[in-house]
Amino acid sequence: VSVHLAVRDNVKEEWENLRKHDVCFLLALRPPVAATDHGFRDIPADEYCQTTGLMYVRGCEVEGMLDENGRVVEEFGMDAKERPKFTSSSRTYRVLLDCNQYREDMDMTSQGGEDVYSTFNVLMRRKPKENNFKAVLETIRDLMNTACVVPDWLHDIILGYGDPASAHYTNMPNNIPTLNFNDTFLDFEHLRQSFPGYEVKVPAHVAKDELVAPFKITFEDIVTRNQKREQPGDDTAAVPRVLTVEPVVAEVRGPFPKCVPKMNAVRFTPTQVEAIRAGTNPGLTMVVGPPGTGKTDVAVQIISNLYHNFPNQRTLIVTHSNQALNQLFEKIMALDVDERHLLRLGHGEEALETEKDFSRYGRVNYVLAKRIELLEEVSRLQKSLGVQGDVSYTCETARYFYLYQVQSRWEEYNVKIEDAKEPSVQLVSDQFPFHVFFANAPKPLFKGTDFAEDYETAQSCWKYIEDIFTQLDEFWAFELLRSGLDRTRYLCVKEAKIIAMTCTHAALKRQELVRLGFKYDNILMEESAQILEVETFIPMMLQNAERGASRLKRVMFIGDHHQLPPVVKNRAFQKYGHLDQSLYARFVRLRTPTVDLNLQGRARPEIADLYSWRYKDLGNLSKVLTDAKYKVANAGLSYDYQFIDVEDFNGVGESSPEPYYYQNLGEAEYCVALFMYMRLLGYPANKISILSTYNGQKALIRDVVRQRCAWNPLFGEPNKITTTDRFQGQQKIGRASCRERV
Predict the structure, then answer these.
(1) Residue 632 — pLDDT band, cuts 50, 70, 90?
(2) H helices then E strands: how many in the chain?
(3) Which of 259, 428, 586, 735 is deepest in the core (most CB within 10 A)?
C-alpha cells in the first residue's frame, strides 16, 4: 500500500536527504487551544497529545520521491545534470505503510470517521544512525531462514571447535609456495632483513646488479611440505627454512610519464611482512595492531598484492566506520591499482579527501568519460595509420578496428624482427608501424644504441595500445546498458575488483546484492574489534553458495581487541548476552594464531610507554628515536603529556542537559585556553587537535572556540575538534595535545 505526500520546501531540495528505505513517521499536528510554558520533555505521557496537538502518528518506509510524471526517481549522484527538474517547490514521496493499520484506518473512514491520511502535515525522519534498524533486522531474519554457507576451513573455528590454527596459511593444503611480493620490498637488503629466520638464496644465473625490486620469492620449506603432504607417512617436521629470490621484470606500460606505476614507499618491518604474506595466502589471517603500528599500511599492501597476483579475483573491504574506510581507500588510491576497478559503496564517500568520486554513480561517470577519452585515442590511432571509415564511434567498432587493422600490423612487425638474419637497432625503429601515433611521446622514442632496449620500448608502446582496447572491451557493456541503475549494478557485479563498504551498509544491502549475483573471493575487515559478531558474519554472506560451497578463499581480520570494543547500549544484552565481544576478540580468546605488529611509529617513546605495557614486546621504530620532531621539546610546556584535574567552574561540574549528552564548561574553557596559549607560542593551528570522549563536550568546545578564537586571526580554529572514536587511526606528531579529564 502506498500514499502520496506533498512536502513543500522553499529553501532546498530535501529529496537529497530522504533516501530509499528510510523509516519515517507521518504526523497530524493541530495547534492546541491553550499554550503551555512547560518544555515538551516535562509533559506527562497521558497529557502529551492534548498539550502538543498531536492527533495521529503512522509509521512508513520511503520508497522514493516521484517526478512530475509520477515515477520513482533513481538515487542519482550529486551532479547537477542528473537531478530531476521540477516546475514547483512541492515534492511528492511514495511511502509504504503497514497494511493492517491502513485497513483499520480505511474501515474507520468508511464508517463515517475522519480520513487519517488527508490530515498529515509533518513528515518526521528518524535519526540517521537509528534509521537502519529495519533493514538490518530483515537481513538477520533472512539469514536465520537461509542455508548459510561458510568456507569449510573456517566452519569449525567460527563454532569454536577443533584446532584454532587449522585455518592458518601454514596449515592450509593450498598454501602458495611462490609469491610475487610486487612492490612490498624497497630493495634486496630490505627483503633479507624481512625474513630473519630464513636462509636467503639467489639463483646462480641472477647477477647482483639484477637484484632490483620487485621480487618473486619461493619458499623451499613450503615446497617440501607440499611434496611430503602428498606422501602420507613421511616426517614433515624437520624442514629447513630456505627461500629463493628472483627479480621480476617490471612490465613497462608505455612511453609516457603517466605510464610509470605508483610504488610503495613504506619500509615494512619483518612482522608486517609476515602479516602481508599471511594475507596473500589462502586461509584466515588475524592481525593485532597496537596504535601506530601500521595496520592500514599492511591492509593496503595485502590488497595491492592480491590485485596483482590474482587479477581475476575480487576483494571486499569492510570496516566499522566510514572514516576508517575512507582512510584505507585513500591509501589504496596511492598505489598501483587502476581506479576503474575501485568502488566505494554507501553514503560516506562524500568524506573522501579527494576530488575523484568513487561512489557508484561517480564510477559510472568516470567510465563514461574514460570511454570518450579512449575513443579519441582510437581516432588518433586511426588517422596515424591512414585507415578510412568511422572506427571510433563505439567500443564495438573500435574492437573490429583493433582486430583487423592494428593487431595485424603488430604481428607483421614481429615477423620481420624474428625473420631478420641479423636484428639491428635500425630495423626496430624503421619497421615500427606506430611512429606517428607516438609522436607526442618523449623524444627520442628509440635511442638506437641497444637492440634489446629498443625492442623493449616497442613492446611497451604495444602494451599501451593494447591496454586502450582492453579497457574499451570492459566499457562495452556501458554502451549496451542505458539506465544509470543498470550501469551501477553492472559496475558492482562485474567491473569493480576492489569493493569497499561499511558493515552497516552490508547489512542494509545484503538482499539486493545477493539478488544481483554479487561475488567476491577475499574479504578484509578493518577495525574488526569494533564490529559485533553478527555484523562480522553478515559480510561473509553477501553472495550465494556455488555448488553448495562458499567461494571465499581468504578472510582477513585486522584490529586491536585492547582498544575500542563494540558499542551495545542495552546493558542486559551487553553483559548477559556477551554482545560486546566481537568475533575478532573471540577468535583471540580461542588462541587462533595472530600476527602481532610490534613496532610503533606514531608517538614519542615517552607517550608510547603509557600503553605499551598492554601489548607483548611493543617497541619503537627508529624514526621516533632519531627524527628531530620527536626529540625536540614542546616549547612552553613542561611535559610531553600531562593529566590535569579541572575544578568545578562557578560551582558547576559535569552536567547532562539530555540523556547521555555530557558537558563540562570548566574543562571546555581550559582546553580552549590551552589552545590559545599554544597559538601565542607559535604552534600552527592545523597541527593541533582537541579530542573529547563525548559528543556533548565536543559541541561545547566548538561553541567556546567560536566565541573565543574563530573570529580572531591570531588564534583561528584547531585542525579538528572531534571525539576519540572519530579520531581513531589519525595522528598529530611532534606537537603537544590537550585532553580533558575523563
Answers:
(1) confident
(2) 25, 23
(3) 428
